[in-house]
Structure formats: structure tokens, C-alpha cells
């Protein structure tokens, strides 16, 4: 197998992977005296599905929060699309083209699915407050265009039947799908998924896997995901970063990672003598 | 009227009807589909252009006259166009059930020798690929939705829209015209596979004559018009959908509306408000249950309003619909009810504009049927099968009842054989079973009479046909009277508390029955009455549940007793089973039909107890769990005696 760590190759199933989209250089993140992430570096290539795995408390979600700009690391640099990213507010990161879903679902429960997904378009709405209030000219045109895109996503994720349903009434698995829809509505360059399959049954997991693959395939979206379910991770991702106690202990293709002794130890535990 | 002319005016193939519709209603909508949240529509002229482009595209693929083209997908305009495009190039469309598994698809594709497949999406394409090795005959596949298919090898795979484009650019128009002109009234229009509850599916060959004569007669019977609207949501492989959404739509020129997805069907139904509607009984049943559950949650005033006016509707609604004389006060009150209850309810259900509604396929509960009729919805029953191009009998306006299936459709002759089996002969009678002369000969005799496999009788006076059972299930009691288990079982199953019923009695002195409680309905009742139970078995054996079941059985006995022919079928003794009859245990078919032989063997001890007079029976039954493991449940069941009624006594009352 040729070396894929540099990007710019074609996968076995014919997807084109580009060069580096995001690079994390020597990231260290501390909360007071607790070191959540310790000197971690890895990169994400354009068009790939990149997974971050690790046992509980390994620092996966913290890592994702660094990528999404929610946490600013004390040390290290985040490079996105060829330039170094200064400390940013989450909304500025969103404007850069990074969207995410949350481990424990953060939707507007009282709003309909459609309205929730429309909020994903907020960063793309340019019309002024006045124009939006009187609902004329630019605001109206903009809404129509955005709605069209949102409808395509609704169609894509097969949630037409719940378009007008308040999110609070939906079962868990569907909420997860709505969250994915909202993230997609932002037309992200990089999509971050925090445990997309957590709490799902086998069938829901299969559906979600299918959607993640289809999103990557159809829109060419780069995806970084955190997941507990090893089977899912190994099937979905092109490359995997393994973390344990805030450190990176493995990085490579699913096969490489699976055979890495350190990774096996971290997951299965070793006798400490 | 333009439609009065028929084959003589050259309207003898669907492509010719299409051309007529373009000429007459060119700018009127022919197809609508909800996509991306909006109803997209195509006029007859636009649809004809799309169909022609696809037909030209099929020519570039090398489709020959007489080829079979398999079509697999859900109701979408594009899939309907595929059927007509196939006919245009002289090929035979073969629609398949989209939920068939790969093996079933393999059987049909192999049997009809299809060279081409038009499939809706990746799911269907994958199924064909899965069995591709066994099907060397498949040359090329066309797909509609490209999602997930980008990376597939496209050597023998083309996207629908690209094929149309290719057709528009390079298609041989002269050849298309030649083929279109060469078709005759007796050429094959479509081949439909019967679902095959017994044995392998059979390919029913229907000619242009079958389809067009049937469509014409049935359209005229119900006065269908070109401004009618239907919602196409039933499987495309089913003959009914072919007649409604293609045959009648092309004959009268009405608009076919396709829902956004199967899950949005009820919502889309409400938006479209069809004027002509078909649904199997279970759809009506589910809708009624939904209404009732929502009314339970409504405020006290609303509940009162609903029940008060529904009671009135039940009294006069059906008569008003049938055009019978109703008192002025009642009429006025019905008008008020229409304003307050019936109108809004019909709107919610999507039935505000229904002029003609049909149900068929199985028996519909009289309460359900009357509920819709009393609202002023012209719901009727029909009886048909694939081999008849649907219509055998149907109910004319003003002669609608829940216990008959109507009078012979125009052009249909009926006769009842000595054993009670119903035979028919009509212009819609199929040409033959494809590659199965033996079955053709055993189903259709030399004079064109076709055996339905159902037993029934023609009611004296009204001339309506009444179906009592499958002919092979009808037997004789020991005293020689008629034994029709399904007739009684259906009556029992109309009670919401009864999920399943199996009646025994062939060659016996009296009838007995097994009953299954409906866990949803009975569980709900238990909850409301503070009855605690820990398992299905315990609930099924609860004395109050048994008492309720007994009252249901006795009510059915009273109703069966009114029919002198079938009065011997009253249930004398019954048990409420400790387990639900299940397809996993082989007791039901996958389509949830009762398998009598297996049940008779498996529960032989309980049946013995039903006939030896014992009051209880202890039994042990093997069950299969969903993951395939096996276990067994033990139970002691109470055998109950039900009151039976005397025929003469009831008649005398």
C-alpha cells in the first residue's frame, strides 16, 4: 500500500483525497492544573473521513472543541486552509466553514425541523435587519434560495415526513439526523461529528453510517468524527487518530491502528507491575 | 363526448392515448410530484416529451420489440413514464414490487428474460447486482437517483436523465414512429407478476385490449373526468395501480399525483385532496383509529360535539349519500354537522373532495365502512384480481353495502359453480400466464371463463355478489351445511379487541374457534380500568377479558344466525390463546394470513379439548424468538361455551 500520510491519493473505492485542509501542531490544552491534551499533532486531508478515538476521558471531545474553536489551546498552532488561525470565537470559526454536531444534541426543541435546519444557513444570510423585518427585496430572495438548499438537504437525509414537526417530539435517532442536517446546511468545508452514533440501535447506526458516507461522497465534505463504536470507526474512516490520557498513541489507517500494540493496550488494559 | 369513440378512433394503445391527451389537454397537468417541499408538475405535453426522450434513449440501448423491461421503484412520474416509454418502443414493461428481496427479483427477471432494468435508486440497483451472476440476460440498467451510485462501474449502467438526453440527441425518431405505428390492440400492454401466496409468482400477460377496454368501462361506470385527481401511492407492480394511474389516467386524462416519500403520504393526501381514491381496508382502519385516539385526548366539549354529530351522521349520512328521503330536521342537523364536524374532519383526513372512493383486497369492517360513508364520503367496494385487469364486480352509486362486493362490472359475466366457486368472463380477462401454459389452461377454460378461487353467491333480489371465503377453505359440516371459516373469522376480527381468529369445524358437528387478543386495544382497556397484568399470557387469560371475548363471539353468532346458508358456522366453544400467532413460528404467512394446517397440527391438544367438552386444557407450546432461539410456554387455558342462536327464531323476531 502506498503512503497516504501526505494526502493527494485515490482511495480503494475511488474517492479523491486532496492535500492538507487542517493541521494541528503541538497542541496542548490545560484546565488549571489538569492537562487535557498534551502536545498533539495531526492533520486532516481534504475529502477524507478522519476519526478520533480513545477510551473515556482520553481528551477526544476537548480535541474536537479545539478544532471547532470553542477552546483555545495554551500551546500549539491550528492551521486551516493554508493559514494559521488566530484565537477565534466559535461564530468566526463557523464563518470559516467549520460546522459541528454535539454529543448530547443541541437543537431548538420548540422549533420545527425545518426552522432548525434553516438556522444552519444563518452565516450565509446577508440581508439587513430592516430588510428582514419588512420582508421585501433581498431578504425574501435570500430566504427562497436558502430554503431551496435546505430542502435538498432534507431530501438527502430523508426527513421530509418530519419537516414541520417540532424537534422536541422526535425520537433520539431522528434528532441526531436533524442535527446533521443543520450542520450540512452551513455548507461546511469541514464537518465535525461528536459521537454521531452514541445511544443508537444497530439499525440507526447503519443508517447514520450510510448518511455520513453519502455526505462525504456526494458533497465532498471533509469529516472529522469522534466515535466510541470501534466497528463503525474502522468501517467508515480513512485514517484514525488514537488518544489516551491526553496523548496521541496512534495515527494511521484503520488496519495500522488495529495492529498497534499501544492502542490494543489502551483499549484492553495491561497489567501494571 | 370525445371518449365515446374507442378503438375504432385509433385509441388502441397507450402511446396513442397519450397523443390524444396531448392534443386535447396538452397544457393541463398530467403528473405532479412533491419534491423539495414543493409540488412539481408536468403537463400532458411535457410528459409526452419526457416519455418520448426516454423511448428514444431506450432505442439507443438496442431495445428490441417484444423485449421485457423490468421496472423497480416507488410511485414517481419518472417510473410511470418508463412504462409508457417501454410500450412506445414495442417492449413490454414488467413492474416489480420494490420491497421484494433480491431472490424474488432474480426469479422474476429470469422468468421474463428481461434484458433491461429501470430502477429507482441504489437500493434496487444493488439488489439486481447481488443476483447478477445468475442473470446473464441482463444487458443494461438505468437508474433514476444517482445518490451513492457515482463510483459504480458504468459500463452497463446509465442515469435516466442522461439516457433521455442521449435519446434526444441521437435517437432514431423514424424507427420510433415505425414501432409506435405497428402496435395493435392485441399486443401485450404490460406483464404483471401475481404476488404468489401459493407457489412461485406467475406472469400475467395483459393486452392493450384488456387494459383499455377495462379502463374505458370502469371510467364510464364512475363518470371519471379529465379534471379528477388521484394520489398514486400503492405499489406499481400491483394491477390496481396500473389501471388507476395509467389505464384510467390515460383514458380520461386525469392527473396522477405522487407523494414525496411513503412516510409523507397522509400529509400529501391532504394537500392534494384527491377526487378519486383507492385504499385497502387497513389504510381506512388506521386513519379511523388515529381519529378516535385523538378524540380521546380532546376537550370535553369537543368530544361531546364529535360524538353527538357522529351519532347523527350514522343515522342519516348513508341515506343522504344514497339519495334516499330524509326528514327536513335531520337534513338541517346534518348540514350543521357538516359545518362543525364532518367538513373539518374530512379535510384533516384529506377526503374533502373525494367523489369516488374504493376499497378492496379484503373484507372491510362494517363500522369502519359506515364511518366513512356517514361522513358523506362515497366509499365503495370492488372485487377483482390481476387476471381480470382488476374489475370483476363493483358497487354502483346508491347501492353500497359493507357485506357485498357489488354487481358485475360493465362487460363482465359471472357464474357460480356447484362448489360455490365464482367464475367470470370479460374483455379484461388476461391473455395467458407467461411461459406457463399449464396454469393458463387450469385457470381459464376454452370459452374464456376464469376461476377466481373464491367461493361466493349472488344475492337474490339485489344481484350483488357476496364472497364468503377462499374456495379451497370452504367445507361441509358433519350435517352437510356449509362451512366457511373466513366468513366468521372476519366478523370476529372486526372487533378491535380481536387480532386474529381461527375457526374450525370442517366435517365436525359444530364450530369452534381460537382467538388472539389485540394487545394494543385490550392493553389500553386494561390500563383504563386499572387491571394489572404482567404478560400477554396473563392478560389473555384474565376473566374479564374472557367475558368480553365471549360477548364478541355471541354477537357474531347472532349475526351469523341471520344467514340461513351459513348459520351452521356459529362458534359453540372457543379459547383465547396464550400466545400471539406469529409468522416466525410458521403459524401465519409473511403477509399475515393464517396457515390452517400448521395451526391444526401444532395445537391439536387444544382443538381436542374444544370438542371433548373439557373445561380447561393444559398445554405447552414452542415459540421462536426474533433472534431465532427457541423456547416454550406453558399455560392452562379455559375453554368457554358461547351461546348460539336458532335460525328460525331470529328470523321470526
TrEMBL record, chain A:
Keyword Transport listed: yes
Pfam family, one: ABC_tran
Taxonomic superkingdom: Bacteria
Keyword Nucleotide-binding: yes
Protein's organism: Litoreibacter arenae DSM 19593
Residues in ABC transporter domain copies: 22-270
Name assigned to this protein: Branched-chain amino acid transport ATP-binding protein LivG
MF term (GO), any: ATP binding
Keywords of the record: ATP-binding, Nucleotide-binding, Transport
Gene Ontology CC terms, in alphabetical order: plasma membrane
PROSITE patterns, per database record: ABC_TRANSPORTER_2 (PS50893)
From TrEMBL, chain B:
GO cellular component entries: membrane
Protein origin, superkingdom: Bacteria
Keyword tags: Fatty acid metabolism, Ligase, Lipid metabolism
Enzyme class: ligase
Entries under Pfam families matching the protein: AMP-binding (PF00501), AMP-binding_C_3 (PF23562)
UniProt KW Iron-sulfur keyword: no
Record-level Gene Ontology MF annotations: long-chain fatty acid-CoA ligase activity
Enzyme Commission number(s): 6.2.1.3
AMP-dependent synthetase/ligase domain sequence ranges: 19-433
Signal peptide residues on this chain, from the entry's feature table: none
Keyword flag Lipid metabolism: yes
Name used for this protein in its record: Long-chain-fatty-acid--CoA ligase
Lineage, top ranks: Bacteria, Pseudomonadati, Pseudomonadota, Alphaproteobacteria, Rhodobacterales
Amino acid at each position: 500500500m502506498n503512503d497516504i500520510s501526505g494526502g493527494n491519493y485515490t482511495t480503494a473505492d475511488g474517492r479523491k483525497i486532496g492535500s492538507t485542509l487542517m493541521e494541528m501542531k503541538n497542541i496542548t490544552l490545560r484546565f488549571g492544573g489538569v492537562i487535557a491534551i498534551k502536545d498533539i499533532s495531526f492533520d486532516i486531508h481534504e475529502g477524507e473521513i478522519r476519526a478520533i478515538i480513545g477510551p473515556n476521558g482520553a481528551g477526544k471531545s476537548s480535541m474536537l472543541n479545539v478544532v471547532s474553536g470553542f477552546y483555545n489551546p495554551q500551546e500549539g498552532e491550528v492551521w486551516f486552509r493554508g493559514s494559521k488561525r488566530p484565537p477565534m470565537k466559535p461564530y468566526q470559526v463557523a464563518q470559516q466553514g467549520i460546522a459541528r454536531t454535539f454529543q448530547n444534541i443541541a437543537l431548538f426543541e420548540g422549533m420545527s425541523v425545518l426552522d432548525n435546519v434553516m438556522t444552519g444557513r444563518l452565516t450565509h444570510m446577508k440581508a439587513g435587519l430592516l430588510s428582514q423585518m419588512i420582508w421585501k427585496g433581498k431578504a425574501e430572495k435570500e430566504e427562497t434560495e436558502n430554503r431551496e438548499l435546505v430542502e435538498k438537504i432534507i431530501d438527502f437525509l430523508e426527513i421530509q415526513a418530519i419537516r414541520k414537526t417540532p424537534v422536541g417530539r422526535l425520537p433520539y435517532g431522528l434528532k441526531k439526523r436533524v442535527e446533521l442536517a443543520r450542520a450540512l446546511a452551513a455548507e461546511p468545508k469541514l464537518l465535525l461529528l461528536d459521537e454521531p452514533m452514541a445511544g443508537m440501535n444497530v439499525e440507526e447506526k447503519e443508517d447514520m453510517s450510510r448518511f455520513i458516507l453519502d455526505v462525504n461522497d456526494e458533497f465532498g465534505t471533509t469529516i472529522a468524527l469522534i466515535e466510541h463504536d470501534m466497528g463503525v470507526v474502522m468501517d467508515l474512516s480513512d485514517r484514525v487518530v488514537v488518544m489516551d490520557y491526553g496523548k496521541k498513541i496512534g495515527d494511521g489507517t484503520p488496519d495500522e491502528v488495529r495492529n498497534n500494540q499501544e492502542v490494543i493496550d489502551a483499549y484492553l488494559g495491561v497489567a501494571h507491575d | 363526448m370525445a371518449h365515446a369513440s374507442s378503438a375504432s378512433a385509433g385509441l388502441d394503445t397507450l402511446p396513442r392515448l397519450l397523443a390524444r391527451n396531448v392534443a386535447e389537454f396538452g397544457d393541463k397537468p398530467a403528473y405532479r410530484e412533491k419534491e423539495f417541499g414543493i409540488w412539481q408538475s408536468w403537463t400532458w405535453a411535457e410528459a409526452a416529451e419526457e416519455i418520448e426522450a426516454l423511448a428514444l434513449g431506450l432505442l439507443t440501448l438496442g431495445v428490441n420489440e417484444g423485449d421485457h423491461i423490468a421496472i423497480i421503484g416507488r410511485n414517481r412520474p419518472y417510473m410511470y413514464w418508463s412504462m409508457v416509454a417501454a410500450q412506445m418502443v414495442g417492449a413490454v414493461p414488467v413492474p416489480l414490487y420494490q420491497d421484494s428481496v433480491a431472490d424474488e427479483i432474480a426469479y422474476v427477471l429470469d422468468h421474463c428474460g428481461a434484458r433491461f432494468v429501470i430502477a429507482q435508486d441504489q437500493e434496487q440497483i444493488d439488489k439486481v447486482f447481488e443476483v447478477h451472476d445468475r442473470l446473464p440476460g441482463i444487458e443494461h440498467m438505468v437508474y433514476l437517483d444517482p445518490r451513492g451510485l457515482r463510483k459504480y462501474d458504468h459500463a452497463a449502467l446509465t442515469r435516466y436523465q442522461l439516457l433521455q438526453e442521449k435519446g434526444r440527441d441521437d435517437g432514431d425518431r423514424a424507427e420510433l414512429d415505425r414501432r409506435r405505428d405497428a402496435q395493435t390492440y392485441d399486443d401485450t400492454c404490460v406483464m404483471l407478476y401475481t404476488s404468489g401466496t401459493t407457489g412461485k409468482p406467475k406472469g400475467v400477460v395483459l393486452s392493450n385490449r384488456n387494459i383499455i377496454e377495462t379502463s374505458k368501462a370502469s371510467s364510464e361506470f364512475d363518470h371519471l373526468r379529465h379534471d379528477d385527481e388521484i394520489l398514486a401511492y400503492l405499489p406499481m407492480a400491483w394491477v390496481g395501480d396500473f389501471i388507476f394511474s395509467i389505464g384510467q389516467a390515460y383514458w380520461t386524462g386525469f392527473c396522477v399525483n405522487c407523494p414525496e416519500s411513503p412516510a409523507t403520504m397522509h400529509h400529501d393526501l391532504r394537500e392534494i385532496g384527491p377526487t378519486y381514491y383507492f385504499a385497502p381496508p387497513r389504510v381506512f382502519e388506521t386513519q379511523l383509529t388515529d381519529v378516535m385516539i385523538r378524540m380521546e385526548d380532546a376537550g370535553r366539549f369537543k368530544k361531546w360535539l364529535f360524538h353527538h354529530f357522529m351519532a347523527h351522521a350514522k343515522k342519516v349520512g348513508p341515506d343522504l349519500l344514497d339519495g334516499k328521503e330524509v326528514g327536513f330536521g335531520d337534513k338541517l342537523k346534518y348540514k350543521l354537522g357538516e359545518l362543525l364536524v364532518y367538513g373539518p374532519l374530512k379535510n384533516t383526513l384529506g377526503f374533502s373532495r373525494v367523489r369516488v372512493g374504493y376499497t378492496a383486497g379484503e373484507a372491510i369492517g362494517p363500522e369502519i365502512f359506515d364511518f366513512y360513508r356517514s361522513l358523506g364520503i362515497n366509499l365503495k367496494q370492488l372485487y377483482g384480481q390481476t387476471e381480470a385487469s382488476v374489475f370483476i364486480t363493483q358497487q354502483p352509486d346508491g347501492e353500497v353495502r359493507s357485506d357485498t362486493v357489488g354487481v358485475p362490472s360493465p362487460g363482465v359475466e359471472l357464474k357460480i359453480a356447484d362448489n360455490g366457486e365464482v367464475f367470470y368472463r370479460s374483455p379484461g380477462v388476461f391473455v395467458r400466464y407467461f411461459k406457463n401454459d399449464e396454469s393458463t389452461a387450469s385457470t381459464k377454460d376454452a370459452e374464456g371463463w376464469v376461476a377466481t378461487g373464491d367461493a361466493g353467491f349472488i344475492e337474490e333480489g339485489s344481484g350483488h355478489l357476496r364472497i364468503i371465503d377462499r374456495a379451497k377453505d370452504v367445507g361441509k359440516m358433519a350435517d352437510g351445511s356449509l362451512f366457511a371459516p373466513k366468513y366468521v373469522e372476519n366478523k370476529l376480527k372486526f372487533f378491535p379487541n380481536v387480532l386474529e381468529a381461527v375457526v374450525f369445524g370442517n366435517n365436525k358437528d359444530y364450530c369452534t374457534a381460537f382467538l388472539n387478543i389485540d394487545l394494543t386495544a385490550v392493553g389500553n382497556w386494561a390500563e383504563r380500568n386499572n387491571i394489572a397484568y404482567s404478560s400477554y399470557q396473563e392478560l389473555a387469560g384474565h376473566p374479564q377479558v374472557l367475558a368480553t371475548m365471549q360477548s364478541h363471539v355471541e354477537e357474531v353468532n347472532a349475526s351469523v344466525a341471520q344467514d340461513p346458508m351459513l348459520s351452521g358456522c356459529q362458534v359453540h366453544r372457543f379459547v383465547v390463546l396464550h400466545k400471539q400467532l406469529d409468522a416466525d413460528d410458521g403459524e401465519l404467512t409473511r403477509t399475515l394470513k393464517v396457515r390452517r394446517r400448521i395451526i391444526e397440527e401444532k395445537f391439536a391438544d387444544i382443538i381436542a379439548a374444544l370438542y371433548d367438552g373439557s373445561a380447561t386444557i393444559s398445554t405447552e407450546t414452542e415459540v421462536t424468538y426474533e433472534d431465532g432461539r427457541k423456547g416454550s410456554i406453558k399455560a392452562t387455558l379455559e375453554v368457554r361455551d358461547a351461546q348460539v342462536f336458532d335460525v328460525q327464531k331470529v328470523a321470526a323476531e
